[in-house]
Request: fold
Amino acid sequence: MSSILSVSQLNKYVAFKLKSDVKLKGLCVKGEISNFGINYKSGHAYFTIKDDQSCIKAVMFSSCVEKLKCEPKDGMSVIVTGNVELYEAGGTYQIIATDITALGSGLLHMQIEMIKDKLIKQGVFDESAKKPIPLFPRKIAVVSSLTGAALQDILNIIHRRFPICTVGLYHSQVQGENAVNNICESLKKADEGDFDTIILARGGGSLEDLMPFNSEAVAVAVHECRTPIITAIGHETDTTLADYASDLRAPTPSAAAEIATPDRTELCSAIDSLTDHLKKAYETKIDKLLSDVEKLASEIRHHSPENKLEMYDQRTADLSARLGKAINNSISRRESMFDKTAGTLNALSPFNVLSRGYSIVMKDDTTVNSADCLNNGDRITIRFYSSEVSADISDITRKEELNDEL
Reply:
C-alpha cells in the first residue's frame, strides 16, 4: 500500500518534479494570448496561452515585462518562452514566461506600430506639414517599378486626362532587400527635379511585400520631399506608413493619376461655361458703363458753359422780348395819354377858340383882358385865327355904357 500524502506534500512533490525536468525549462509554447493584463502594483503580467483545444496559465515578472520589444495584446499569435512550474498554493501549473515573440503578420504589425509611434512623436505625420497638390501640373514624377502594371495604369490615365503634362519616370524596386534604399534614392532624385507632383506607387501584395513602404527610412524620405507627393501603395484597404507621411493618399495607382491631373473634358466644359459667364458679365458691365456715360454726359451738358450760355441767351431773348413789349405798351399808353392831353389842351387852346370867330387883342405883346387897360391913341394888335391886324384906339366904350345902351 502506498503512503498517504497531504495536499501540500503532493503539490511540493509535483513542483519538484516539474522543476527538475530539463525538458520543461526554456521551452517555447506557440499559441494565442488571451486575458492579458499587468498588475499596476507589482508590474507582473498575467495571461493565458491557448489553441483551439487547450489553454495554460502564464505569468511574466516585471523584470521581463520591461524588456519586451512589443506590447502583447489579446488575440495575438505568439511564441512564449519560459519554464513550466507548479503554483503550489493553487495546485495549478503555469508557464513562468521570460519572453514573448509575435508570430507572422502579428510580428510585422507590432513592428509597424512601434515605428509608427516613433514617427508620430517626430511629427512625420503632422497634418500641418501636408502640402497642397497642384491643380494643373506641368510635370509629374512617378517613382515605381518600370515593369509593374501600376506604372502603365498611371501613364495611360495621365495621357488621357491631361496629355500636355510631362511625366518623368524613376525606377525603383518595390519589394525585397534593396527596396528601401532604392525607394529613398529615387524619391530624392525626383524631388531634386523640376516637378510639380510626385506619385509613389506600386501594385497590390501581401503585408510582407509592402513592408519597404512601412520602413522608417521611406516614411521619413516621403515626409522630407519638398515636392507635393501622392502615395498609391497596394490595394484600397492597404495603408502604409508612407501613406501617412505623404501629402495625400490615393486608394490605387489609377486613382493617384486621376487626383494628380485635371480632366481635359471637364476643363473644356468649365472653360466654355466660364466664357459664357464672362461674356454675359462683360455685356452687363458694358451696358452699365454706357448708361453711366450717358448719365455723366447728360450732367455735363446740363452743367456745361455752352448749355448755360444757351440758357442765358434764351433768357436774354425772353427778357428782351418782354422789355420790348413793355416799352411798346408804355409808349402806347403814353401816346394815348398824349393824345388825350393834346385833345384836352386843344380844346382849351386860345387858337381853337379863335377858329370859332373869336379874336385876341394885344398891346405891346401883352394880352388885353379889359378895355380898362387901353387908352385912346394906343396901338393894338388884333389876332384872328389865321391872321392879325393893327389898329389905333380912337374911342373906348365902357361896359356900363354898353349896358345902358342895351
In short: The two ends are 226 Å apart (CA to CA). The longest helix spans residues 305-348.
